[in-house]
Amino acid sequence: MSENTKSAKLSIDGKEFDLPILSPTAGPDVVDIRKLYAQAGVFTYDPGFTSTASCDSTITFIDGDKGELLHRGYPIDQLAGQSHYLEVCYLLLYGELPTPAELEDFECRVTNHTMLHEQMMNFFRGFRRDAHPMAVMTGVVGAMSAFYHDSTDISDPWQREVASIRLIAKMPTIAAMAYKYTIGQPFVYPRNDLDYASNFLRMCFAVPAEDYEVNPILSRAMDRIFTLHADHEQNASTSTVRLASSSGANPFACIAAGIACLWGPAHGGANQACLEMLNEIGTPDRIPEFIARAKDKNDPFRLMGFGHRVYKNIDPRAKVLKQSADEVLDLLGVEDNPILQVAKELEAAALADPYFAEKKLFPNVDFYSGIILEAMGFPTSMFTPIFALSRTVGWISQWKEMIADPQNKIGRPRQLYLGSTARNYEDIENR
Ligand code: SDX
């Protein structure tokens, strides 16, 4: 970032404080308040961090007003249309698109780390069969620090690299095994002769009783869904990973924290909640009832898959997913899927409603993804695990960037305290 000659002036009780203004390569200027408390003895107050930059980064940029998403400068619609997930992983991790030799080496390293330590199978078997796959993923990923001790020392760049490759490579295996475990089917091991998306589909849907041929349409759609969920600036789960990592915790524990945060229905859990909402609406004639509920201040109901802290225009990922939904369902012969029709009519009704227009509420990444995933054969409980699998590269890239940053220090926010001031203990007889 460049230090501007510009500065912001803050006046408190007649005293003036100059706060430097830092300029980004894109997006709004930031007021540097790092010295504010030392100089002025005051904190800033920003629950939910609506106006707060927690770090500087070179990985992903979102222009919420334009509805633009760039990964290392490349627009998401170009990456979704022309690249593939492992190439996007390379871009996010190392900053540039790979040469053919670099890509081949990277894909080979990932492919050769897809298997899990055999002892981890017992870990899966400790869960109830009806456990949510996200509960299993949170536990198993956290437990990786108990199995891969040679890649937990974050001060060693080589161990950081190994941990990164292991996590990206093993997440599909873990997610697929979490799914198989909950449906009582045997685990399917990864294969080195399949690409990343095809391997995941086979590990989810193959059974020992027959051969499984990967449908190239599904594999391309799966890879595109991975790409569209790969990274997204300092969202709640990425911020969780950064905060956990700031204490020096090992990478597996930090990614497990990110998975736990992503699970919430306001974040990555919205894809499951959105499809459940569309199924509850059921038919287009019930759309007005749900639009009215979403607008009712006394009703906690919100349109799932709608709205976003940053996008005040349609989420560019939703645009690609809407087009992909049409293509995939058409190719799968389910183009007359009634839920897709409900989704499209719900989107049109909401976008035509002044409430949503005034609040700039548009479909986000979770609005159409579930329709595609359900058509591909996944139960709703697997939607957020697939989001977590996809986002692992984003969490890891941001984690690596933070650890390599010489400014890196433990994150420790302050507070606006509204509790009791000091008072003396009263013995119970006197209360
Ligand atoms: C993801 O941060 C990221 O980048 C996340 C993500 C990523 O890739 O990492 O993009 C992934 O999490 C996408 C978001 C998925 N969540 C949902 O679809 C759940 C439904 N949406 C919301 O709950 C909400 O829109 C959020 C959580 C996404 C954003 O919430 P904000 O930014 O805190 O906005 P807000 O709650 O302050 O809402 C502003 C106003 C409120 O009305 P007022 O109090 O001003 O009168 O808009 C209303 C809200 O009530 N509103 C909605 C709404 N979302 C916001 N009203 C109805 N339906 C909705 N979906």
Automatic annotation (TrEMBL):
Belongs to the citrate synthase family. Gene3D superfamilies: 2.20.28.60, Citrate Synthase, domain 1, Cytochrome P450-Terp, domain 2. Pathway: Carbohydrate metabolism; tricarboxylic acid cycle; isocitrate from oxaloacetate: step 1/2. It catalyses: oxaloacetate + acetyl-CoA + H2O = citrate + CoA + H(+). This is Citrate synthase. Pfam families: Citrate_synt. InterPro entries: Citrate_synth-like_lrg_a-sub, Citrate_synth-like_sm_a-sub, Citrate_synthase, Citrate_synthase_AS, Citrate_synthase_bac-typ, Citrate_synthase_sf, Citrate_synthase_typ-I. GO terms for molecular function: citrate synthase activity. SUPFAM superfamilies: Citrate synthase. It comes from the Bacteria. Keywords: Acyltransferase, Transferase, Tricarboxylic acid cycle.
